[in-house]
Design goal:
heterodimer, A: mainly alpha, MetI-like fold, two-stranded antiparallel sheet, B: mainly alpha, 2 domains, 13 helices
């Protein structure tokens, strides 16, 4: 049976349920959120329909600028760390036996699916004074006494790299599997060391993939909403944490919605960049 | 790459990935309610606590119910959509594919906030079923991606043959398409199930004040101090995810599902 355009109205029937669900429960909520971002906030957590820009005007404060700058910087550092760690890892993984690959993929998927709550809890345990790694260092005689490593910027960064690393590997995996193995073989035959072949052949061949992956991991890291809260101090809070805080604890829905709309715009801009980077990759 | 370098690198990455989980597993077998590693004494009572303590048991029950139902709803949305896109030429319908992938691409807090404002506006805020719908929409991406991949791997000449032999649309779907697509339905369901089980922010923003799922329970418990049950629940979650993905890998083609082979058809 060939693919054919729908002929009768009945041919559209299978589309009805998915289309209705996605429209009612995704498009409408999204629109509601945009509408609320222009609403007027009332005391006591309520808001009334209006059309004001007050919620957006609040962005123009030093505090908000600081949070935005910090969120972007943190996400960039996480993206760079993840790609630098994951690129050689994924490259070597794709050259391993299939069985080994599957074991690693299962492990990576399991960690990727872990709740941020659980990742935050696990790292705060590992960085704690009573059960943390410093105890091991003390036992080895490297440190004098155990101490807590959290809350700190390093703890936030480690937790977020931990969360985003499996994602990075899974994004890189398809591109690296498809990479022509004769490329490196040629380099090796011509006398390049494995390390040199990796940096002079593999990395340049994957330039566009790397750019696209950096942007995707950046977006992923931008979405982290709990780790900065669980592992960092208030000055380490990101835009996602602030949105949750405003919506739930400060009951300021219009402001939370305005920040969310802003975050969507930043994300969409970056997705557009990814697509452009991808197009260029195909053309090259 | 030299093999020693490779082994060392994989060992370090493996250590980084497993260290927090090893410590948590160690903490979970402490004899007393202390946060200590290496564990002091040995006891599995904190695993029993998940099922014996009514608060944790209710949270476990709420999480599993939510995951079972929302993953089923996600598949129910994804299956007709991906079938339609495979069977028909209707470029404009791709917009729904895009809508299905969007919630998962955007930062999760955005979907969560959208759901919160929506349910609050229509007046169902806090009803347990709203979390099922919200999770189904949030995770519909996963069955949608696996099913689209599954449909592209179906050999159209099989369907053509059935059609020539006189089978109607319904019979073809039941006897040819469904058996071929079933592994992809199962893996799509499995992905959505595991992620729903672990999801925190969407559940918290929709039903956080009325229902306590396990991630919400762990977060609330974290704020009021520490109990080793959190550690045992964490171990339970990691094990569940590993078993489910292990089964998907055992009975399906994991590297293919993850897109490794997606260029082979071209």
């Amino acid at each position: 049976m060939r693919r054919e355009p729908p002929q009768t109205l009945g041919d559209y029937l299978p589309l009805l349920f998915p289309a209705a669900m996605l429209t009612i429960f995704f498009v409408v909520p999204f629109g509601t959120m945009i509408a609320v971002s222009f609403f007027q906030r009332q005391q006591g957590g309520f808001y009334t329909p209006a059309f004001v820009f007050d919620n957006y005007a609040r962005f123009l404060s030093v505090f908000f600028g600081g949070v935005l700058g910090f969120s972007l910087m943190l996400a960039i550092i996480v993206a760079i760390c993840c790609v630098v760690l994951a690129l050689p890892f994924t490259y070597m993984l794709t050259r391993m036996a299939r069985k080994v690959q599957v074991v690693w993929l299962v492990a990576l998927l399991s960690i990727l699916s872990l709740s941020e709550v659980i990742i935050g809890f696990a790292w705060s345990t590992l960085f704690s004074r009573t059960a943390g790694i410093t105890n091991i260092l003390v036992a080895l005689g490297i440190m004098a006494e155990a101490k807590a490593l959290t809350p700190s910027f390093g703890a936030v960064l480690t937790g977020m790299v931990y969360q985003a690393f499996p994602y990075t590997v899974l994004v890189l995996f398809p591109a690296l599997v498809r990479l022509d193995p004769t490329l490196t073989e040629a380099a090796r035959t011509l006398g390049a060391s494995p390390l040199k072949a990796f940096f002079t052949v593999v990395v340049p061949a994957l330039r566009n993939t790397i750019t696209a992956t950096l942007i995707m991991v950046f977006i992923f890291a931008l979405g982290s909403y709990l780790l900065p809260q669980l592992l960092g101090r208030p000055q380490h809070w990101t835009l996602s944490v602030l949105i949750t805080d405003q919506a739930i604890y400060q009951s300021n829905m219009p402001f939370a919605a305005a920040m969310a709309v802003f975050l969507v715009l930043v994300t969409l801009g970056l997705v557009a960049l990814t697509v452009i980077a991808g197009r260029k990759g195909e053309a090259a | 790459m030299t093999s020693i370098f490779r082994k060392a690198y994989f060992f370090l990455i493996g250590l980084f990935l497993s260290l927090p989980l090893i410590v948590v597993a160690g903490v979970s077998v402490n004899q007393k309610q202390t946060l200590a590693f290496p564990p002091q004494g040995f006891s599995l009572s904190w695993y029993g606590e998940i099922f014996l303590n009514p608060e944790w048991r209710n949270a476990l029950f709420a999480s599993v119910t939510l995951a079972v139902l929302s993953a089923a709803l996600a598949v129910a949305i994804a299956l007709p959509l991906s079938w339609f896109l495979w069977r028909r030429i209707a470029p404009w319908a791709n917009i729904f594919q895009l809508l299905g992938v969007a919630p998962f691409t955007l930062p999760p807090v955005i979907t969560a906030l959208g759901m919160l404002t929506f349910w609050a506006t229509v007046g169902f805020y806090g009803q347990p079923w709203t979390a099922v719908v919200s999770h189904a929409i949030f995770f519909v991406t996963l069955p949608l991606v696996t099913l689209s991949l599954g449909f592209t791997s179906i050999d159209r000449s099989l369907v053509e043959a059935a059609s020539t032999m006189g089978a109607d649309e319904r019979t073809i779907f039941r006897t040819v398409v469904l058996p071929l697509i079933l592994p992809y339905i199962v893996s799509g369901y499995a992905f959505a199930f595991v992620l729903s089980l672990n999801e925190y922010i969407v559940a918290y923003m929709t039903v956080g004040f009325t229902v306590e799922t396990l991630p919400i329970k762990i977060f609330n418990a974290l704020r009021y101090g520490y109990t080793p049950t959190m550690a045992s629940v964490t171990v339970l979650f990691v094990t569940t995810a590993a078993v489910i993905f292990g089964l998907v890998a055992r009975f399906g083609d994991l590297p293919k599902l993850l897109g490794a082979m997606s260029s082979d058809g071209k």
